[in-house]
Amino acid sequence: MSGRSFTRPLLTLRLVVVLPCLVGTFAAALAALLVPGVSFDTQGVVLLAAAFATAALSVALVLKAHATTRSWFKDAGASATEFAAGRFGRLVPVPPIAELASLAQRMNSMASAMEDTTRRLRRLAFHDTLTGLPNRAYFMATAEAQLKQCPRAGTLAVLFIDLDRFKLLNDSLGHATGDSLLRAVGGRLQAVTADIAIDIVHTLERPINLSGQEVFSTASIGLAVNEMAERSVTEIMRKADVALYRAKALGRSRYTTFDPSLDKTSAEQVRLDSDLRGALARGEFAVFYQPEIDLRSGEFIGMEALLRWKHPRRGILSPADFIELAQETGQIIPIGTWVLQQACKDASGFAVMVPAAANLRIAVNVSATEFREPNFVNAVDAVVRSTGVGRGRLQLELTETVIMEDVAAAAETLTRLREIGVGSAIDDFGTGYSSLNYLQTLPVDTIKIDQSFIARVGSGDRSSEIVEAVIRLGRALDLHVVAEGIETRQQADFLRATACHSGQGYYFSQPLAAPDFLALLQSRDGFTAYCASG
Q: Does residue 534 form part of some domain?
């Protein structure tokens, strides 16, 4: 209803009251003037004057109400236009006319409710409901506005942040714990101010307490900055994603800045992903073996099974080139199962060809994804039985990080493995999040000192002291200590002098294909010669 049409009932109502007064007043006046015998005394004149005054006042009020109503509808229309545009700062004025005042109050109340609803909807549309952080839609809108406003090179930096091994934690500890971790990480991110990439990495390295349980969650970060020619936020995000993938490939818990050379690497990773999906079915995987040597006697005491991919285009690839990709795509489970079966099968075959090899331990690396599988122990037991590898020969290697992510669950799984005659080793010891208390109570048999420490033995830093301390610790806890990555005679002599039990590395032998390793087993003079000369 328009303002003009709405004022008609009000005007009509007042005219109904005013017109009789006017008619009566004028009738009385005419009677006094025209009708003989009709006259007014002083009181009559006063009443007549009052009647005229009342009539005049009524006319004035009607005209004023009409003007007020028209002005109000003009203001109300302007406020309604603002409301429709989502702007609620201009309220509808409340006029002195009762009918319009009630309508104005209802309109203002409705506007207030709409403002609250709009605010809530905007919050839901542009913020993550779990962490409260701005979401992708908010980022895109803000970044595009920034890029449009100031398109100069270097004015917009994008960081892609990925929580390392979050899927593993979410699957193993439950989605509720995963949600709690995301909220805690979100809180820490809001406190980051300067040197953003470095600050985020360091901030997330600290343990997070979730209902009394300490959880470690590092982050990998990809960083990209806009160039002069770029007008698309999507392109900058793509580059940040490429840089993130590189950061994860370099070992995680770090940040990498995009470089044009990474585009070539990214394209190669896409092709590698496609190749990996059919590699197992095509028989492109092989297990190589590296001997483990008793550092005092020089004798074979074991071997580590190492996966290799005989890529048709790129040649032989080590796990460092594709294992991360296998974990991300879920192919690590079938690949890991195949490696375990093949290693146990080869170990049994070696024992047939070289009877002395029947006592050699066979070590197989196990990924975190495999270790967390509910049926993992039963699957391992089935492989041991089907391949005929002797009880006590198989040892599974896990990193510290895998064990420490859920110590109670890890302890239960390791105990069950021990019950079926399968040993366990902590691989790359010293590079993850370890606890001496857990090391004392976990049912593990072996610790393997990471090659990064062995490589610096004798270099003048404190690596030699660290290695010696780890060896003493292992012996004190009645654990077998293995040194990885021995490449020189000096390193071998140092480890032997510090009573390290055994070692492996290129100084003794590089990883060998099964036929070559069998030939090495049949001729062991090189290792006994080292022992004799030592």
A: no
Q: By the 8 A CB rule, do 402 and 424 touch?
A: no
- What secondary structure, in 3-state letters, does 200-266 show? HHHHHHCCEEECCEEECCCEEEEEEECCCCCCCHHHHHHHHHHHHHHHHHCCCCCEEECCCHHHHHH
What count of other Cβ atoms lies within 10 Å of the Cβ of residue 516?
14
Taking only the tens place, the pLDDT of each residue in 150-206 is 767 767 888 888 888 787 677 667 788 888 888 888 888 877 655 677 778 777 777
Domain count across the chain: 3
Same structural domain, 496 and 438: yes
What letter does residue 320 receive in the DSSP assignment?
A: G
Task: Output the DSSP codes for 65-126.
Answer: HHHHHHHHHHHHHHHHHHHHTT--SSPPP--SSHHHHHHHHHHHHHHHHHHHHHHHHHHHHH
Please state, as a whole number, how many other Cβ atoms lie within 10 Å of the Cβ of residue 80: 14
Residue count (the chain): 534
pLDDT in tens, 494-510: 999 999 999 999 999 99
Question: What is the domain extent for residue 43?
Answer: 3-124
* 56-to-32, 210, 222, 485 alpha-carbon distances in Å: 20, 81, 82, 112
Let me know: does 418 contact 443? Beta carbons within 8 Å.
yes
Q: Residue 338, exposed/middle/buried by CB under 10 A (0-12, 13-18, 19+)?
A: middle
Burial bucket for residue 456 (CB in 10 Å: 0-12, 13-18, 19+): middle
Q: What percent of the chain has pLDDT over 90?
A: 32
- At 421, the amino acid letter reads G
Contacts of 499 by beta carbon, 8 Å cutoff, 6+ apart:
471, 475
Q: How far is CA 8 from CA 11, 12, 15, 176, 376, in A?
A: 5, 6, 10, 65, 85
Query: What pTM does this model have?
Result: 0.60
Give SS3 for 359: helix
For residue 377, which of 319, 326, 418, 425 has the smallest C-alpha distance?
418
Looking up residue 143, the CATH number of its domain turns out to be: 3.30.70.270
pLDDT tens-place string over residues 293-323: 999 988 889 999 999 999 998 899 999 889 8
* Token couple for 73: 């509808």
C-beta atoms surrounding 414 within 10 Å: 22
Same domain, 157 and 233: yes
Query: Which of residues 108 and 387 earns the better pLDDT score?
Result: 387
